[in-house]
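Standup notes
- HV: blocked on the assembly model, inputs below
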Amino acid sequence: MAERTLFQKIETGDIPADIIYEDDVCFAFRDIAPQAPTHVLVVPRKPIPTLNDLEAEDAELVGRLLLAARKIAAQEGLDGGYRTVFNCGPDANQTVFHIHLHLLGGRSMSWPPG
Ligand code: 5GP
């Protein structure tokens, strides 16, 4: 059996985290090193390593992550807007190889990102 990812260990409670949202496809918890007043990771239950590993059958799953992010943003009161980011691969500094959508908000942000 494949080694479980860090985020699967969070899903099962083996690694503690502040889980703030769950549905049948994904779950979400606060980032341990927040880069904004609200910084949440939305993670599919299916452990897909990177965006490059997505299959056509995952199209709905990816949409569901974005819909969950929208719900969480409302729950968190991010009325002024928010940013969503998927990091993919070394140039984007992906560090956990189980895809996750960063939801950042609660401050104004600059563009381009660093
Ligand atoms: P990436 O760099 O792969 O796009 O994002 C991984 C994110 O996971 C980082 O923002 C990092 O702070 C967060 N992270 C890493 N380990 C943990 C952990 O044990 N708990 C939580 N809540 N977040 C983590």
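- HV (later): unblocked. The chain has one domain: 6-105. The chain has a mean pLDDT of 97.
- Next: hand off to the docking folks.
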